[in-house]
Amino acid sequence: MLELNLVKESEMQAAVVYEAGAVPVYAEFPEPEPADGKALVELVGAGVHQVVRSRVAGRHYSVAGAWPAVPGVDAVARTPDGRLVYTGFVTPPWGTMAERMAVPAQFGIELPAGADPLAVAAGMNPGSASWLPLSKRHDQLGERGLATVLVLGATGMSGSIAADNAYALGATTVVAVGRNTTKLEGLAARVGADRGLRTVGLTGDPGTDTAGIVAALDGQPPSIVIDFCWGPVAESTFRALGDPNLDVDDYDVSYVQIGTTAGPDATVPGALLRSRNLTLSGSGLGGTPVAEILARLPGFLAQIAAGTVHIPYTTYPLSRIAEAWSAQDGTRAVVVPS
C-alpha cells in the first residue's frame, strides 16, 4: 500500500484511516483544493455503506490503496449557495466523511422538496444498486413490464430496498431469498401479504434451497434476478432456473450479479445458457457507464422523497466515527458534522 505525505496548508476534521483494515478515527486532515472543475461543498450526511467498509479493508476492486485516507463514496452535501445535493466522485485520498469535500461541479443531484437528506445519504448507495438494473430492465420490457422479480440476499438493506424498488416499478410478484428467516418475516410483514411477496429461507443445503426457489417461482420464470449473494446461492438459483417446470415459452430472464456475500465465485451450467433465454451480466462501479448511472439516479431519489422505499438509519456525529463504523443495529449508520 502507498503512504501519502500530504502538505498541511489548511485542515478540517474528518474520519481518517491510516492503514488498510483500520477503524477510522476522528482527526485533522488537509482540506481539498477545488481545482479542475471541482466545487467545495459541506457535509450534511454520509452513509457507512458496505462498499465503504470493503474499500477500507482493501477487499473492493475499486479501492485506491493509498493511506492515510478519508473513507466515504457518496454524501448529501450543501453547496455554497445553500442547495442540498446528492454527490460523490471525490478524488482519493479524500472521501465524503469529512467536513468538506471537493466534488465534480457537474455532479450534484439536487434533492426534491421534502426529501429527508439523511434518508438519501443512507439509502442512495444500497438502493441504487438494484434501481439501476431494475429500471433498465423495466425500460427494456416496455408494455410487458416487470412480472416476477427474484431477489437473492433480500435480508440486507440493499435486498430489502430492492423489493421496494421492484414494486415501485410495477412488479406483480417479488420472491425474496435469504438466510435470516426472522428478517424475511419482517420484510413480509412490512410489505404486506396482498402485494405478492414470497419468501425463501435458505438452509445451506443445495437441493433444499433449489427446491425452495423453484416452489416460490411457481412455474413462472422471473423477469430479472437481482443477486447480492453469488457463490453457492447463485448455483442453487441456476439449478432452479433450469427446472423443466418453468414456462420455457415465456422464458426471458435477465440475471444481474451485484454482490458476493455468499462467495466470490459460482459455477454457471453451460446447458442453462444454451437451453434458456437467459442473459447474465453484472452491475457495479466500472461495469455501468457513469452517464447511465447519473441519468437513472434521479428516479430513485424521487422514490426516497415519496417514501415508497424503507430506509432505516441512525445518525452519528463525525467525532463518533468509530462507533458508527462498528454499529450492528440493522440500520444504516450515517455520519453528520460534529
TrEMBL record:
One of its GO terms (molecular function) is oxidoreductase activity. It comes from the Bacteria. InterPro entries: GroES-like_sf, NAD(P)-bd_dom_sf, Zn-ADH-like_protein. This is Putative oxidoreductase. It comes from Microlunatus phosphovorus (strain ATCC 700054 / DSM 10555 / JCM 9379 / NBRC 101784 / NCIMB 13414 / VKM Ac-1990 / NM-1). The lineage of its organism: Bacteria, Bacillati, Actinomycetota, Actinomycetes, Propionibacteriales.
